[in-house]
Specification:
The complex is a heterodimer of chains A (244) and B (291).
Chain A lengths: L9 E10 L2 E11 L4 E5 L6 H9 L3 E8 L2 E2 L5 H6 L2 E4 L11 H8 L7 H7 L1 H4 L11 H13 L5 E5 L7 H14 L5 E4 L3 H7 E8 L2 E7 H6 L1 H8 L12
Parallel strand pairs in A: 3-8, 3-9, 6-7, 7-8
Antiparallel strand pairs in A: 1-2, 1-4, 4-5, 9-10
Helix pairs in contact in A: 3-6, 6-7
Chain B lengths: L1 H31 L6 H19 L4 H27 L6 H23 L4 E2 L4 H4 L1 E4 L2 E4 H23 L1 H17 L6 H26 L1 E2 L3 H16 L4 H21 L4 H15 L10
Antiparallel strand pairs in B: 1-4, 2-3
Helix pairs in contact in B: 1-6, 1-7, 1-8, 1-9, 1-10, 2-3, 2-4, 2-8, 2-9, 3-8, 6-7, 6-8, 9-10, 9-11, 10-11
Classes of the chains: A alpha/beta (244), B mainly alpha (291).
């Protein structure tokens, strides 16, 4: 699945969302180009995860959301996903009592699932197909979560903090996999690890208090120490081998 | 010794009945977070219509008995599916309203059944073999206990096979763990709601026919009286756990039978005490997911 080159694969305008009446996204407008990785950045609790969940319809929201030009904001979650939106949630959310194979089978929506790609990206999972997902390490669970999204030919992936809580070696593996995946599908990435952002992202969108406060090139943002400190509360220096 | 054997087998039979009701309750709550108070009505209707059909064929024949079980299961499944589609689905995600609807339906259907069949119990008959006893270790066990236990065992195996080896079974297991994530994989989980209601209704309807043979009568209050203990079993076993429901069904029924005999008929009270103890020590139930 692809969109017309030049046309954003995802366009969001004036997105507002709430959870049980509590406003969590105030006014977010953003576009995601048809290739590469677009990062959503921001401090904790500013509405990054809620923005992804709102795009998918997992929480109550209003606003105009278009996928490759088609309005999807009135569709239920499963129909949005069926139109080619892959989702990798924060905290993995694998089905702990199901096996790895069952987790993947459940995710398959196409007649020709991309098992070869998944096996190539995550060789560690190949021998663990019959293992119950709840017994995997955090890194392996993250691979299952990513594999569930990558097994289908999607128009876009929404990926939420894929390196959260992982060991440095696993962060590197996950980053490699995302970099490889981004060659075939655009990714909207929420990420706190700025080394990962620096390596993967083209455009970056910064959210503060449920609103977009900055849009621009990720590297330019992270190179600007003052701006990074003001918007993210941290500096964007490269600190690990992830950024290479 | 013979008394212990009699109490144990009778307890297993009662536990089998509890399981037939509790299995559906547990699956429905696990997936949909709805406590279905109308579940007893599926049981009662299955029992009444099963009995009516058996009478038309020949209530004392095995054919009549077999067809009555099929009718009970089919009626339970059909009414449960209609309940989900017509009354529960429009209230999607409104759990309190869904529960209130099931409470209203349970009250209305009991009144309806009383209007149709009267409020008095109707004593029923089955194949002669069911009324006889079989001697085990000196205890004369009523044969209908064996049938109830065998049928519940078959239902348990069938549901487990369905959950383990079919795509819908996989969706239901995943949905019990994390329903939102199932929809985020592009699956319309609401179809599974109708399915678990249908499976639960079929088990309850089948349980209704067997309960009427176990107790020897059918009445409009049959489902309601079993439903109370099925709820206790579901909570003790762990809401959403089929295995938990099976284990708790047996434990509760055995406890009830032995307490009734050895503690001066205090079986119901002891069961409620057991419920309180489980809730205090392990609020998620014996096999429920830890919060």
């Amino acid at each position: 699945m692809t969109s017309t080159p030049g046309e954003p694969v995802l366009a969001v305008e004036h997105l507002r969302a709430d959870i049980d009446g509590q406003q969590v996204v105030e006014d977010v407008s953003l576009t995601v180009p048809s290739s590469g990785v677009t990062a959503i950045l921001g401090r904790n609790g500013v509405g990054k995860t809620s923005t992804l969940r709102a795009i998918l319809g997992l929480i109550h929201r209003t606003g105009d959301i278009r996928l490759a030009g088609e309005r999807i904001d009135r569709l239920p979650t499963h129909k949005i996903v069926q139109r080619g939106v892959g989702y990798v949630p924060e905290d993995r959310e694998v089905f702990a009592k199901l096996t790895v194979a069952e987790n993947l089978r459940l995710a398959v929506r196409t007649a020709q699932p991309r098992h070869d790609l998944v096996d190539a990206l995550f060789p560690d999972l190949v021998g663990r197909r019959d293992q119950v997902a709840g017994t995997l390490s955090g890194g392996q669970q993250q691979m299952v979560s990513l594999a569930r999204a990558l097994v289908n030919d999607n128009r876009i992936l929404l990926v939420d903090e894929p390196t959260k809580g992982l060991a440095p070696r696993v962060v590197l593996e996950v980053t490699d996999a995302l970099e490889e995946a981004a060659k075939t599908v655009p990714i909207l990435l929420v990420e706190q690890n700025l080394d990962v952002v620096r390596r993967l992202a083209g455009p970056a969108i910064v959210i503060e208090g449920g609103r977009v406060v900055h849009t621009g090139d990720a590297t330019a943002l992270l190179d600007d120490a003052d701006l990074t400190t003001r918007l993210l509360g941290v500096h964007g220096d490269i600190s690990s081998e992830v950024a290479r | 010794m013979s008394t212990v054997v009699l109490l144990a087998v009778t307890g297993l039979g009662l536990g089998a009945l509890y399981f037939l009701v509790a299995s559906g309750l547990s699956l429905i709550y696990g997936l949909m977070h709805v406590l279905n108070f109308a579940h007893g009505s599926f049981l009662t209707l299955g029992a009444f219509l099963g009995w009516m059909v058996a009478q038309r064929i020949d209530a004392t024949s095995w054919l009549g008995f077999a067809v009555s079980m099929l009718v009970g299961a089919a009626v339970g499944a059909l009414v449960a599916a209609l309940t989900e589609l017509v009354l529960i689905r429009p209230l999607y995600e409104r759990h309190i309203e869904q529960v209130l609807v099931t409470v209203g339906l349970s009250l209305a259907t009991v009144a309806l059944f009383e209007g149709i069949w009267g409020s008095d119990a109707r004593f029923i008959r089955g194949p002669e073999w069911l009324d006889r006893t079989t001697s085990i270790a000196g205890a004369a066990i009523p044969n209908d206990r064996f049938v109830v236990i065998a049928v519940a065992g078959v239902v348990l195996v069938a549901i487990v096979m369905f959950l383990r080896h079919t795509r819908y079974g996989m969706i239901i297991r995943a949905g019990v763990e994390n329903r939102a994530m199932v929809t985020a994989l592009g699956i319309d989980v609401r179809r599974s709601f109708t399915l678990v209601f249908t499976i639960g209704g079929a088990a309850a309807g089948l349980g209704g026919v067997l309960a009427s043979h176990y107790f020897g009568y059918v009445s409009p209050s049959l489902g309601g009286s079993l439903l109370i203990f099925a709820f206790i079993v579901t909570v003790i076993g762990g809401l959403g756990s089929l295995t938990g429901a099976a284990v708790a069904s047996v434990l509760v029924a055995l406890l009830q039978q032995f307490a009734n005999y050895y503690l001066s008929g205090t079986g119901d009270f002891v069961v409620v005490l057991a419920l309180a103890a489980v809730l205090l020590v392990r609020p998620t139930g014996l096999m429920g997911a830890r919060a």
